[in-house]
Amino acid sequence: MKKKLNLFSEIAMYLILLAQMLYVFTGTIGWFKAVLTGKSRKTKAGRFADAVTLLLLLCACVMMISSMGVSRVIFPWFKFMMEPVFHRYMATAVLTLSFIHGGMHYYFIAKSKKKAVVIITLLAIAGLAIGLALVPYLNRHLRKVEVVFEEKVRGEKVEMTGETPLVVYFTRVGNTDFEPDVDAVSGASLMRADGVLMGNTQLMALMIQDATGAEVVPITLTGEKYPYSYMDTVSVGGREIREDARPAIEDIDVSGHDKIILIYPIWWGTVPMPVATFLEANDFTGKTIYLLATQGSYGFASSTSDIRKMAKGADVVEGLSIYCDDIPNVRAELAEWLKKIK
Ligand SMILES: Cc1cc2nc3c(=O)[nH]c(=O)nc-3n(C[C@H](O)[C@H](O)[C@H](O)COP(=O)(O)O)c2cc1C
Q: Which residue from 146, 160, 147, 136 is spatially nearest to 266, judged by alpha carbons?
């Protein structure tokens, strides 16, 4: 039923897109002719409106092409512009330019041009804020994902020529006081694999285990767990970072391993403090730590430099930083990365 609804809404949106491109609504062809023949508005505002429209058109085209790169399912052969972050920036640009474009229509009929400029500026700020802050925020706070374990975790095997790395991960699941009724955990940035509650980093750890047969160890708090509410965890996690706390964790012995893959979520631009406890409790002299981060924005933020300071003696190597939404589809990318470090 959900799949049918999704398909229906996709088709409906596509039809609306086509309809709103109709000449009767937009006058696109007339506008193109006017711009190309130099007969468009000669005023400053007219030129600005034309520039915005052209840029909007350009960004919309780039966004369409980059969406093919993002979809590893429908266009697996399309290797160009695979970076989802780039696609998201393009979508933000399209949204912001559309707002300005709409605002310019108002400008030309507005009695008070000053008021129109203020409204257009506010619209532009709103577009940027929605694309850069609100959507990533909602994604990471309100997301609830169901995955089929067999489809998402099982995949290509990678034969490690050297030592198979030890995989250590930290995730909220297992370190949080969830209500016994886990169904109540809706909208809390959680994932369910075959109905079992699972953290993002945990799913990645299990993917690596499936690919390499690696030993997988979670970082587990021994003391107080994080609160049930996601927002409260954000506050507690932030406070721990400000206080440079070292929450107590179960011992993890890395002495028999020269290679460690550390998987962690970015918290407040760095590592969750239980990860700091793990790093400082071990001697990493002569060992290599490969970093895999998950996040609600992009990159490693300051986690890499912080880890270098905490993991004494380690050679710290950045691996992949995966946007939380992309984690269920990252199995093939992980296998490719494992081949590089094998
Ligand atoms: C306390 C806390 C702080 C966070 N801070 C950031 C952040 O600064 N930047 C970011 O991109 N994502 C941030 N996130 C989002 C997580 O990195 C993201 O949801 C991650 O995939 C969660 O992984 P997990 O399910 O394995 O715990 C934060 C999440 C929490 C709970």
A: 136
